[in-house]
Fold:
Amino acid sequence: MQRAGQRGGSQLCGTVARNGPFRQFRRELMGTVRHIIESQQFDREYLSTLFERAHAFSEQGKSRELAGFTMASLFYEPSTRTRFSFEAAMYRLGGNVITTENAREFSSLAKGESLEDTIRIISGYVDLIVMRHNEIGAAKRAAEISPVPIINGGDGAGQHPTQALLDLYTLFRKFNRLDGLRVAMVGDLRYGRTVRSLAYLLSKYDNVELIFVAPPVCQMHEDIKDFLSGKSVNWREESDLDAVLPHIDSVYMTRIQKERFHDQQEFKQANNAYRLTRENVSKMAQEAIILHPLPRVGEIDPAVDNDHRAMYFEQARNGLWIRMALIQQLLTGDRN
Ligand code: CP
Structure:
């Protein structure tokens, strides 16, 4: 395994080796620059390797192997977990972070600059860009012109692939398998990008069963359902959460995304439709787990937090290890 500090056994100092022709040479060694845009891009082998690396980081905690590398975090939408965990991950790998508060207001977008021009400029300063944007497809547009890797930290109601990676990793840590899991996705399946990305990832495993439980105005989009049917994934829609809870390995709760509703009447119809309480959680199997990408705004009663099945805070913590593994893999090409 070749580590960042050992590239080619070079005696060059890190600063020189990471710039100019040396940086280009490193990219050629790694093959084409890779980006993290959507969950469909991963295969099972990649995921297994990533989880091994994440697990190693969860035990190791820190590393210095990316000393001298810089990551930009460019968030056009609010974030607590994604932004902070990516930034913490980069620091824990020994790298640096540059960022802006609220890129919609404080980047030159506010003066009319295009996303493409912003990416052209920032990519000249850093080795990696993690971005969140309000428009579906924004990360893909950035990746098409960026010479450095782009990580999609969420593009509108499109996808949130790194959230899905940490969700899947949390399931794997708990069950030590991914084949055969029965997962209920609950809440805003219409605007929730995390459920879309997770559905794509789970479709890669055998005999997975997905149950979609959503208010009528928040049903899962046809593109995901068609994709799952095309892959012969067993999925169905249910409306009675209490009837579903006893028969699943995991319930994946989501927030109704008020900010994405154009029609506030529709939001009112969807809001508070499904809620986990101590009472309905008691119907779940003892080994089952409760996940949520967070933030929550009422769909899980805080009284559930002490239940041994509540894993959403550990899930968020797992994001740190997954993001360390992802950054390390992108910047060193290390699949081992
Ligand atoms: N799960 C998630 O994406 O959280 P943030 O919006 O806080 O980043």
Summary: Residues 79-82, 154, 160, 163, 293-295 surround phosphoric acid mono(formamide)ester (CB under 6 Å). The first strand starts at residue 70 and ends at 75. The two ends are 6 Å apart (CA to CA).
